[in-house]
């Protein structure tokens, strides 16, 4: 089945599209025009969740007994299905969460590439032979799946994030229960349809939609879930970590960021401006890797600020399906209100709002907000400390590069960071001293490559890494084998 705009999306349990036992649904709205309903999603209960987890448990043994190559083949088929439906799924994403259509297409293509990458992983080695002290014994490691993995995902990357968790979970032999963000559950259902079209056996992947406090909490508490992988807010992440720890389940958390870009005195300013805009304002600043603190050496502060302002003023805000739009709306009313409240907070704490930060004229029924640029920001202000998750850039002036790195590290988060400089020594100090899981030189803070490990330091993650070959560490357990005749 292919869902049409405005249709009701069911849960996917044991290979079948199934309405919730509650009989209740919630609308998913278009943030560019909340009068448009993208679809209705199931407001599920614990009973639906229990059925889905039962199905995933039943499917587990047969799935783990397939060869990695056979599981990989099914992922290749899911990739082909997603590729065939790329435009349709990207359009649903734009309508459901607001990012521009080109960005949504890019994300969907990334989903295809992730599926193909992990399909290939089904053929790669999973262990090592380790010399035993007993010369007559063979000792080696192998890996086994966790069992049933609960996948709890956010709304900001509704295709890429579910896929970068589901694909490795499946190829390493786990079965999956997906609980997508309610904001983007219609898009998620279309991704699940691609797995269905690929012919995955019933129960191997299941999806239940509903409130985080009901279905998400149910996943935390359910003994049948052996591992939970999560991306989202720090508050929810901590709840998941504590709940999983309490009952001995494995967990992996990717959470917030307050990512800096450092613009050194010798930087290529045009490059730095373009990267600050792209890293900070693409997807309306709603990326955990988005640039939000712009730390600039005083020698180039004024020219950098001028160039940045000139470019930001040119950015057109509007419906992501309009080809002339550069930046779409916030994904929801609550995101829009959060951004507006941080703009107020920045002003009241004494920073200077140079541009934007208001609801633009003619916003109609959309959750639009102009990109905002703040000057005279001090490191202890809320806009320099807390994750805003919106299009707000805070300019911070520093004298030296040492002060820049110290300021960049003065945060509870440690996800990504970038520097613009031509000096190899400055690059190396930054690479060594920056407390972040992703450090980028002469490139924007956002932009994750699917074949490389991704994750944060400090409060940004559970110190695990996802994507690339790092994914095997979470989705499997190592078994050390000792064999003697
Ligand atoms: N690191 C990142 O990439 C992201 C960070 N965020 C940050 O979080 C803020 C709030 O966004 P929000 O969408 O509320 O983030 P949440 O962390 O609440 O949502 C992420 C996922 O967790 C689910 N969830 C919510 N409550 C619970 C719970 N008690 N137990 C288990 N799962 C739960 C959500 O379900 P449901 O959608 O049904 O509530 C969703 O699927 C943003 O402003 C931003 O700062 C948000 C998204 C992504
Ligand atoms: O920057 C990216 O491509 C990924 C960002 C991300 O993982 C997130 O926002 O959750």
What do these coordinates show?
- This protein has 485 residues and is α/β, with parallel strands linked by helices.
- It has two domains: 8-255 and 461-484, Aldehyde Dehydrogenase, Chain A, domain 1 (3-Layer(aba) Sandwich); 259-450, 3-Layer(aba) Sandwich (Aldehyde Dehydrogenase, Chain A, domain 2).
- It has helices at 46-65, 68-84, 86-97, 101-121, 160-171, 185-198, 212-221, 234-246, 269-281, 298-314, 333-348, 382-385, 401-409, 424-433, 471-475; strands at 8-9, 11-13, 16-18, 25-30, 33-42, 137-145, 148-152, 175-179, 205-207, 227-231, 250-254, 259-263, 291-297, 352-355, 372-375, 392-398, 413-414, 416-420, 438-441, 457-458, 476-484.
- The strands form six sheets. Strands 14-15-16-13-12-18-19 form a seven-stranded mixed beta sheet, sandwiched between helices. A five-stranded parallel beta sheet has the order 9-8-7-10-11, with helices on both faces.
- α9 (269-281) links the parallel β12 (259-263) and β13.
- α3 packs across α4, α4 packs parallel to α5 (160-171) and α9 crosses α10.
- The termini are far apart.
- The relative contact order is 0.13.
- Bound molecules: NADPH dihydro-nicotinamide-adenine-dinucleotide phosphate and 2-oxoglutaric acid.
- Keywords: Oxidoreductase.
- It comes from Paenibacillus piri.
- The active site is at 254.
- Belongs to the aldehyde dehydrogenase family.
- GO terms for molecular function: oxidoreductase activity, acting on the aldehyde or oxo group of donors, NAD or NADP as acceptor.
């Amino acid at each position: 089945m292919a869902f049409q705009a405005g249709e009701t999306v069911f849960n996917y349990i044991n290979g079948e599209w199934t309405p919730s036992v509650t009989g209740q649904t919630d609308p998913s709205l278009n943030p560019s025009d909340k009068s448009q309903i993208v679809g209705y999603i199931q407001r599920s209960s614990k009973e639906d969740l229990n059925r889905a987890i039962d199905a995933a448990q039943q499917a587990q043994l047969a799935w783990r007994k397939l060869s990695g190559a056979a599981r990989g083949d099914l992922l290749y088929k899911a990739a082909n299905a997603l590729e065939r439906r790329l435009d349709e799924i990207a359009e649903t994403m734009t309508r459901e969460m607001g990012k521009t259509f080109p960005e949504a297409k890019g994300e969907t293509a990334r989903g295809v590439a992730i599926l193909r990458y992990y399909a290939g992983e089904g053929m790669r080695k999973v262990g090592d032979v380790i010399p035993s002290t007993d010369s007559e014994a063979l000792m080696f490691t192998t890996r086994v799946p966790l069992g049933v993995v609960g996948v709890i995902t956010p709304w900001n990357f509704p295709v890429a994030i579910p896929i970068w968790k589901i694909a490795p979970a499946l190829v390493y032999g786990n079965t999956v229960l997906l609980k997508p963000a309610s904001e983007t559950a219609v898009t998620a259902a279309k991704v699940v349809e691609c797995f269905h079209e690929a012919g995955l056996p019933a129960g191997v992947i299941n999806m239940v939609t509903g409130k985080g406090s009901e279905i998400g909490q149910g996943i935390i508490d359910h003994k049948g879930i052996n591992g939970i992988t999560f991306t989202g807010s720090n508050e929810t992440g901590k709840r998941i970590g504590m709940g999983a720890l309490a009952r001995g389940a494995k967990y992996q958390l990717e959470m917030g960021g307050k990512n800096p870009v450092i613009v050194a005195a010798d930087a290529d300013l045009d490059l730095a401006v373009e990267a600050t805009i792209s890293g900070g304002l693409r997807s309306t600043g709603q990326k955990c890797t988005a640039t939000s603190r712009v730390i600039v050496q005083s020698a180039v502060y004024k020219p950098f600020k001028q160039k940045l302002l000139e470019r930001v003023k040119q950015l057109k805000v509007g419906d992501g399906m309009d080809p002339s739009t550069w930046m779409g709306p916030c994904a929801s009313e609550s995101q829009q209100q959060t951004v507006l409240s941080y703009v107020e907070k920045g002003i009241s704490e004494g920073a200077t709002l140079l541009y934007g930060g208001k609801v633009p004229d003619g916003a109609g029924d959309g959750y639009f907000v102009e990109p905002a640029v703040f000057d005279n920001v001090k490191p202890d202000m809320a806009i320099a400390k807390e994750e805003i998750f919106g299009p707000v850039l805070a300019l911070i002036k520093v004298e030296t590069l040492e002060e820049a790195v110290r300021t960049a590290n003065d945060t509870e988060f440690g996800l990504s960071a970038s520097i613009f400089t031509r000096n190899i020594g400055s690059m190396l100090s930054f690479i060594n001293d920056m407390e972040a899981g992703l450090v980028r030189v002469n490139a924007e803070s956002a932009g994750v490559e699917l074949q490389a490990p991704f994750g944060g330091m400090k409060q940004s993650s559970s110190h695990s890494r996802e994507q690339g070959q790092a994914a095997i560490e979470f989705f499997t357990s190592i078994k050390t084998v000792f064999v003697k005749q």
